[in-house]
Amino acid sequence: MERLTLAKLKKAASVFVRDMSRQDIPDLFGVSDGKAVGTYVEHSFHGYLRQRYIYDAGSSASGIDFPELEIDLKVTSARQPQSSCPYRDAGQKVYGVGYHLLVFVYNKQDDNVSQIARLQFQSARFIHKTHTADYQTTRGILEILERDGNVDDIVAFLEERNLPLDEMGRLHLAECILKTPPRQGYLTISNALQWRLQYGRAVKIADEGGGEGIENLL
What we know:
The chain is of the alpha/beta class. It has helices at 6-20, 34-50, 92-95, 135-146, 151-160, 167-179, 200-207, and strands spanning 2-3, 53-54, 71-77, 82-86, 100-111, 116-127, 188-190, 194-198, 214-216. The chain is built from seven helices and nine strands. The model has no long low-confidence stretch (mean pLDDT 92). The protein has two domains: 2-81 and 99-130 and 211-216, MvaI/BcnI restriction endonuclease, catalytic domain (PvuII Endonuclease, Chain A), CATH 3.40.210; 136-179, no CATH class. β5 and β6 (116-127) form a beta hairpin. The longest helix is centred in the N-terminal third of the chain and has 17 residues, at 34-50.
C-alpha cells in the first residue's frame, strides 16, 4: 500500500463523506450524543484509510489524528459546528492551534420506520494551520498594524479581548505580534480550560469560495 500524503488524505476525505452520506447506519439510530456520532465517523474514516494507505495514527501523546501530516480530524453537527481543543497558551488565539484541521460537518436524520440513521455531510473543510486562529482577534490585530499601531496599542487590544494573560504575558505577546504579524484566522475560539472552536464562519467562507488557507473538499 501507498504512504498517506496530504493530497491523498484530502481526496480520501472527499470520497469518504460522499459515500457515507449514502449509507444506512443502524448503529446510530436514536443516538443524540454528538460525541458518540463523531467517534463513529472518526473510526469509520480511519478504517477506510487503513484499507488503502499506510500511516501512523495519532495517540494521546501526539494529541491529533494524523501527527505526520500535522492534521487533526473534527466531526461536528451542522446544528452547532464546534469542538474542543486542548489549551496550550493564549497565543493560539493569535497564531492558531498549531496544526491543520480537517472538519466534517454532518446533519443526522433518523428513519423511525426502518430504524436506521443517515448522516448527510454538508461540508468537508481543510483549514491550514496558519489560519486556525480566532477571527475577531486576528482581524483586530491586523487592523491595528495597518494603522501603524505600536506595542501599547496591541497590549490594550489584548486586554480588551480578555486573553488569559497577565501584564507581562500581554507585553511579550504584543512584541511577538509586532515582529511576526499573524495571518487572518477563520475560527471563533472561546476562552476556557479547553478552547472551544466554532466553525460556522469557516464553513461559510469556504462555501463562498473565498479565504486563503481554507479548502472546500466537496
